[in-house]
Amino acid sequence: MAMECVASARKAESIGKKFTIKGWVRTRRDSKGGFSFLEINDGSSFGNLQVIANNTLQNYQTDILKIGTGCSVVIEGVIKGSPAKGQETELVADSVQVVGWADPNTYTMQKKGHTFEYLRTQAHLRPRTNTFGAVARVRNQISKSIHDFFQEKGFLYINTPIITPSDCEGAGHMFRVTTLDFLNPKTIAKAEDDFFGKPVFLTVSGQLEGETYACALGKIYTFGPTFRAENSNTSRHLAEFWMVEPEVAFNDLIQNMDLAESFIKRIIRDALNQCGEDMQFFEERIEKGLIQNLELVLNKDFQRISYTEAVEILKNSGQTFEFEVAWGKDLQSEHERYLAEKHFNGPVILYDYPKEIKAFYMRLNDDGKTVRAMDVLVPRIGEIIGGSQREERLEILEARMQGAGLKPEDYWWYLDLRRFGGVPHAGFGLGLERCVQFITGMANIRDVIPYPRTPGSADF
């Protein structure tokens, strides 16, 4: 007897085969003909498997007629062709075993429409809904595509520290990690008495540590959790999220752009090819035109313009923006989306940003005013990738650190990469959740991560 999943059972080639399905009941309908229809899902596909349970089954009266939404079951039977519209197969049950009951009076995920806000309060159960099951499968495919893309290109997967003394971005939005009892007013807390003997924090990026391996092994990528203690409650920000950060030795900014473009296209292509049923759901129920917009990014060459050119385009656009457009100011989401959605009607890469609004490690241009930074913008999201060519010149990097209020001696190991066999190198960062938002059309980033962490909220 084959132990199979719902996804396999729903395929025509399974007709005539015996299956054992383990999953959860979405609905039960009873027929006057003396049988019941059960809709079963086990997470392997968007669609359910219809099960026909006849009243001749031994536990039909005692169990099957009491089954409700949320009950877990093990069902054995034979896959038959289905006469019903919209499904190729159904399972005629030989046995139905209820493994776990779900009381309909207290079960919070009954078959009705729930708002996403409500479902965030039920984050432990929301994966059982169509929307969040689809998000989980697409998120999984994106993660697989990330690894496949880099592995196929000869990159090494490197695990960088989650606990670090280094502030990669220089913005100060970091979570302190400590064993000291700061809540006890009688405690005199000294950093040297702490677990690591110094102040340490949850990482905001694995980039700096990743550079050390790129400058020894050539091509690496990191993929792990990062943390930002930024007090922002927008639909685009999380305090905990996942980042993928490739780094390539001997690469410059142009090669970095090429890598980012092919990377984004690979993710889109795989999602459309491998998650067709889920993507169709997002198209129909979450955002009309989603697939067309993704295909636009997939099939278009990414435009490339400087930050200075982008500022001029925005100033001459005739648009009224909430935030002022001026050279030297960071572009806001509304500016980025105008460029990608209206001016270029497609993806665009901006480069050569003012040094004052970018991190200390980005390579200074000859004009002394801009750095070799880049942002990849796509319609609906705005920035989806940020990256740069790194500053490989020791003296300039030290000066940039001091200008950012950082102490070069705290980064002695990072500076050693420039002292000993330094090379030009470049990389970028892609936030997984921002990417999942882009692919699925989900409006709020809190709905594309299993358990969102935001200011004032760390439930579950």
How would you describe this structure in keywords?
460 residues; alpha+beta; OB fold (Dihydrolipoamide Acetyltransferase, E2P); BirA Bifunctional Protein, domain 2; 2 domains; 8-stranded mixed beta sheet; 5-stranded mixed beta barrel; 12 helices; 17 strands; elongated
Textual characterization of the structure:
The protein is α+β, with helices and mostly antiparallel strands and 460 residues long. The model has no long low-confidence stretch (mean pLDDT 95). It has helices at residues 6-9, 116-120, 130-152, 207-217, 253-274, 276-286, 290-299, 307-315, 333-343, 394-403, 412-419, 432-440; strands at residues 2-3, 18-31, 35-41, 49-54, 72-81, 89-100, 156-157, 163-164, 176-177, 200-202, 219-227, 240-249, 303-306, 348-354, 370-378, 382-389, 425-431. It has two domains: 2-100, Nucleic acid-binding proteins (OB fold (Dihydrolipoamide Acetyltransferase, E2P)); 126-447, BirA Bifunctional Protein, domain 2. It starts with a strand and ends in a 20-residue tail after the last helix. The strands form three sheets. An eight-stranded mixed β-sheet has the order 7-11-12-17-16-15-14-13, with helices on both faces. A five-stranded mixed barrel has the order 2-3-4-6-5. The protein is elongated. Helices cover 29% and strands 25% of the residues. It has twelve helices and 17 strands.
Topology:
Elements lengths: L1 E2 L2 H4 L8 E14 L3 E7 L7 E6 L17 E10 L7 E12 L15 H5 L9 H23 L3 E2 L5 E2 L11 E2 L22 E3 L4 H11 L1 E9 L12 E10 L3 H22 L1 H11 L3 H10 L3 E4 H9 L17 H11 L4 E7 L15 E9 L3 E8 L4 H10 L8 H8 L5 E7 H9 L20
Parallel strand pairs: 1-2, 4-6, 7-11, 13-14
Antiparallel strand pairs: 2-3, 2-5, 3-4, 5-6, 8-10, 9-10, 11-12, 12-17, 14-15, 15-16, 16-17
Helix pairs in contact: 3-5, 3-6, 3-12, 5-7
